[in-house]
């Protein structure tokens, strides 16, 4: 056995086969260069691959290439009963699984026509865990954004605070990230005894931390310099691309499905929908998007406080309360096309179902992923920016590749 | 006589060299501990008590990793890059006076490898050569990210060297000497340059951050944009050399800062200490002990600045490339020139008046 001396032989044709590009040497101008950012790049937040055409450090064009994390969610869903799809929904947006579950479960419940039978306590618990998870997701978004900008410490501070949330959610259902907690017609379990107290303690702990975060990151002079006037997303463009969530609200439209659709118990709760105002830069820049996220964290705390109040006073824990009381034995909706949507942490998460009324599985289950639509705007807003700005823009859009590729 | 002097000198050189390496090695450990402290975690604590053996474990890991050279890289330059970086980093410590002098057998040997009357110029010359290591390594990797990092490093270091040099000019105008030892001697008795050159100090330390490629000026190697910058393709001890060179540079620049602005081995009340020691232990032993205390003071100052580097690194975000250039060319250079003018006015007009008043 002779050992080969060349470890890897470079063949340009292999490169062309494995990495299909929109731009080739023939279509580029002399001073331009194709820079492949990703799929193994530290700050593309997963396996996003961006084909970046640069002129020096100035970006001429960005072409996102997707599909590196494609796991056939929609095809899987076509061969699974409705209740068994929930764990797959968890794995779409894996940093905000509760919110995805909530959206999906509401859709199926409405198809079955049982959405009004759900006990109020269940609804409040659902909103409580969803808002907890929204906090966790926004912490990841802001923390990794600070990391992209070059500040390392805020990331770990936020991960530390997120850990409290994950421990609490683990307490409710046994899993740290992929919960399968919200069931069609109910919940896996009632909240564990003592959860309400621990949760209100956590809220008390978190409030000063959020102020600290705002002072350390959002109002930092270098942070403002890096994010103000960068990646400006005008409102018409945001609407045309179908952006939702903090990306759209950062551009100045007060559009939040929790208020617009008023699903679950959100109409009974008192909270604001923060929007970007262009305080330090242009309306719709990276700073606005991040400021909206921090403000939303505050609003989530407010919602959680109200939920806890309801759960301890109006709908308290009783010995004979069964969170699975309304869970249907057999989930077979009538033949219909149905679209259900909810405000996930990154925007409008929708599920389109087509059922034939004869089987327990959906004929078609299409997910409208908010990250996917938000990501599509990247080419438009990063042209003419610097390479460092591109990283800032990706981070400010806050994508989760599990949801983009599904 | 000749031999003893030679032996003592060799010992001093060896000790300084070894100490530089040791401090660079333990600043990697220190950095991780400081980071752990700032980020509310423990930092390395597995290798030995308090993780004190962590640098050795890291070095061992570095040596045992595969030494990979990319197929399309320019092999000689790829190897030359980290060597150059390490060489230039190690050469600078030669002219820095770490202490006064050691008396032995009627001889007086300075705690300094070489006493050069152009010490400052030597440091600057070597430091500006240091960018070659980065440039050569980045270019030879044949990787676009490395190339961008190398270009950034080159332009950043060149632009910040100008304002760094200009901020030094003000000090040279005050002291009238290029020898670092002489500059330190003139700061004797609490007469530190920082009192006269606060603006120059701020400019100098900003430029020192940029020269060492430390946050907020770590654009050449910024992980989130350029993967690893100029050392993306490096692995094993070649990568180790680059990282190590950065820590040596950090220590050396901290030493230069404390020598130029904070009195080097001078410390408050040193004359009193010297008098006490010489009366207690005699002229030779007392002098040597006093020198050692001075050296300790010097190291304490330098290590404080090393800590300062780390503190800033784990607190601030990174600048963007154009903001960095704007800061360098549009803010720091005019400020440095202004500082020269102010210092010149002070030296020409104010100093005679003050001396006249004092006498």
- Order of strands, widest sheet of chain A: 1-2-3
From the alpha-carbon coordinates, what is the Rg of chain B to the nearest angstrom?
22 Å
Q: Could you name the ranges of chain A where pLDDT drops below 50 across 5 or more consecutive residues?
A: none
Instruction: State the share of residues found in helices of chain A, binned by percent.
Output: 40-55%
Distance between the termini of chain B: 45 Å
Level of helix content of chain B? over 70%
Outline of chain A, from the CA principal axes? globular
Would you identify the regions of chain B where 5 or more consecutive residues have pLDDT less than 50? none
Largest sheet of chain B: 2 strands, antiparallel
Oligomer: heterodimer
What is the beta-strand fraction of chain A?
Answer: 5-15%
Task: Please describe what this structure looks like.
Chain A has a single domain (73-404), classed as Cytochrome-c3 Hydrogenase, chain B, CATH 1.10.645. With 406 residues, chain A is an alpha+beta fold. In chain A, helix 5 (120-149) runs antiparallel to helix 6 and helix 5 runs antiparallel to helix 15 (387-397). Chain A is built from 16 helices and eight strands. Chain A has helices at residues 12-18, 73-77, 82-90, 97-112, 120-149, 153-173, 195-218, 221-227, 235-240, 246-250, 257-260, 286-312, 370-375, 378-382, 387-397, 401-405, and strands at residues 32-37, 49-55, 58-65, 182-183, 186-187, 336-344, 347-355, 364-368. Chain B has 359 residues and is mainly α. Chain B has one domain (61-358). Helix content of chain B is 71%, strand content 2%. Chain B has helices at residues 2-38, 54-64, 75-91, 119-140, 144-175, 180-186, 193-196, 198-211, 223-226, 236-261, 270-281, 283-313, 321-358; strands at 101-104, 107-110. Chain B has a two-stranded antiparallel ribbon. Chain B is globular, with a radius of gyration of 22 Å. The mean pLDDT of chain B is 85. Chains A and B meet through helix 5, helix 6, helix 8 and helix 15 of A and helix 5, helix 9 and helix 13 of B.
